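tmp note - DYTN protein
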Amino acid sequence: VQQISGMLTELFQRVRLEKPGQVDPRAAEFTLSLLAAMYDRSGTGYITTRSAAAALIALSGDTLLAKYRAFFQFYAVPDGKAALITRSALRSLLTDLNQIPAIVGESCTLSCVEIATHSCFHGVLSSAIVEEKFLSWLRSEPAVLLWLPTCYRLLATEMVSHHARCR
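out:
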């Protein structure tokens, strides 16, 4: 938690310099509190960096494709020239990401993660998949992660204005 706190403080200080007046001075504190509520419920003082990174990526303002690629990079394992994501790595990713809706009472059961993992690896004979297969599966908007593209769409439409008058 201490290391993540330092990283968040540095991150938000940089953003505050780039965009003065747009970042709450307590942003690092609030973000750390959220991460601790999601990943350190028992108060051990330990949050895995990968879990924290997954949450920060999911909650970032980046495009869905960029988020999906970043998830792959954080959870994939190197295999010679290519990186692959295994079933256990996918389970870890989905479990980590499901802590985000769980914090607002929209949790998913462990069986949801298993069903999603099975659907991603449907028809795959090997123990791991390449990035393109992973991205293709995510683009199909699996139910376990439906909240992610929904939040992205809400954020994307926030600034849309229509020049029509209602009667």
